[in-house]
Amino acid sequence: MIVKQLSDILNTKDDVDTPTWNARRLLLKQDNMGFSLHDTVIKEGTETYIWYKNHVEAVYCIEGEGEIEVIGGETYPLRPGTLYALDGHEKHWLRAKKQLRMVCVFNPPLTGREVHDEEGVYPLVVD
Questions:
Q1: Largest CB tally within 10 Å, which of 41, 79, 89, 92?
Q2: pTM for the model
Q3: Could you tell me if 61 and 82 are in contact, meaning their C-beta atoms sit under 8 angstroms apart?
Q4: Helix ranges, the chain (H)
Q5: Given this model, what pLDDT does residue 70 score?
């Protein structure tokens, strides 16, 4: 059984802070769950281009207000209670009107070493 508190993650290598978002990586590949789980904050007033070419992601909004714009497609509002799943590796813009807090699940699971590249992509890290 795995039991963690968010406070166990804060200010460690699994608390990844960037100019537009902060991801607290609660479960990672090494936890052997078959997915990774993240408590992610999207900073107010920011927009981030993302493309998970190598992963699928499900996201559940628990706080804030914003939108996700699928490149070449629609724009969807984000508010508490909204779920979106990037099951088609969609390129997208994530915008936070107010700070967003999201619960994110990735498959394949992240290792914790990934960094978005110039295309907004996490590389597929193979151990």
A1: 92
A2: 0.90
A3: yes
A4: 6-9
A5: 98
Number of H helices, E strands in the chain: 1, 8
Which domains does the chain carry? 14-107 (2.60.120.10)
Give pLDDT, residue 17: 94
Look up tokens 């993650």; give the residue: 9
Low-confidence ranges of the chain (pLDDT < 50): none
Please tell me the predicted confidence (pLDDT) of residue 112: 79
Report the distance separating Cα 118 and Cα 106, nearest Å. Answer: 20
Tokens of 85: 């799943």
Measured from the Cβ of residue 85, the count of other Cβ atoms closer than 10 Å reads: 12
The tens digit of pLDDT for each residue in 32-54 reads 999 999 999 999 999 999 999 88
Beta-bridge mates of residue 106:
36, 57
At residue 54, what are phi and psi to the nearest 5 degrees?
-110, 0
39: β partners: 24, 103
